[in-house]
Amino acid sequence: MEPNKPTNPDLERPGSIHSTGGEPRWSAGGSPNTNPTTGSDLRNRAAEVGAQLRDRAAEAGAQLKDRASEAYDQTKQAVGQAYDKTSQAVSSTYDQAMTFGREHPGQLTLIAFGAGIGIGILLASGGSRRRTGRYAQPAISALSEIALEFFRHR
What we know:
This protein is an all-alpha fold. The protein has three domains: 1-34, no CATH class; 36-86; 104-154. It has helices at residues 39-103, 105-125, 131-152. α1 (39-103) packs across α2 (105-125) and α2 (105-125) runs antiparallel to α3.
């Protein structure tokens, strides 16, 4: 046995920091630059993962935008249909009222007169519950029922 050589076989293994190759070696068997987990490799891997995350986020954003666009279009269509139905109903009711007024001008005059009296009583009461409150509510209810009866028969 030589006096300069270590007797432990683990110390003579290549890659051991105790080997006699001159430079210290890392336990993985190579220099720090060949280690698979070096700084540049970590940066590259982080860049890859970042790119994957960015792509996934962009895809999720595109899907969210598509869903929001579909919901907006459906809402816009529903509102448009509701507006059209309401417009048709109001137009139909207006046409019925005008036709009734042309066919029965005397009755329309009495309805307008009664409505005017009812509105006048309401305005005269000033919102307070005085004696006129006892007369205003039944008068308006009666006039409303009369007007409804005329339009129901048409």
